[in-house]
Amino acid sequence: SKGPLLRPSQDHFQVTSKRDMATFRETAIQSLNMTESIPSSSCRRPSQFPRITIVSRLGTRRIKSVQVLADKIQEMYNLTYKVPVAYFEDVSFRHQVAAMTSTDIL
Q1: Vertex 91, ends 20 and 75: CA angle to 5°?
Q2: Is the whole-model pTM more than 0.70?
Q3: Phi–psi pair at 26, nearest 5 degrees
Q4: For residue range 81-97, what is the model confidence (pLDDT) as tens digits?
Q5: Is the Cβ–Cβ distance between 24 and 32 less than 8 Å?
Q6: Among 4, 42, 50, 96, which residue has the least CB neighbours within 10 Å?
Q7: Are 42 and 51 a contacting pair, CB within 8 Å?
Q8: Per DSSP, which regions of 3-77 are E strands?
């Protein structure tokens, strides 16, 4: 069948809907044999704050004063956790996917 989401055997996906994104997420998790329980979004539970992660870079496209930004977000939204800052340059794709499965806002 023809649709916006390409088969996993092809070299890319085109995501045009929430359903496509869910399919892409499941395909990535399955292809990496990540069978452990993936946490659901805390955004669906109004009593909990969303899980926020900042992704910065080590080179020229890095966020200046990234820790100040993370601290300000924590303060402004009265978060009960420190906002993590991730650097993915030297991290495996599997680790990147694992980090994103526990993030609501990137």
Answers
A1: 80
A2: no
A3: -65, -40
A4: 899 999 988 888 888 88
A5: no
A6: 4
A7: yes
A8: 54-56
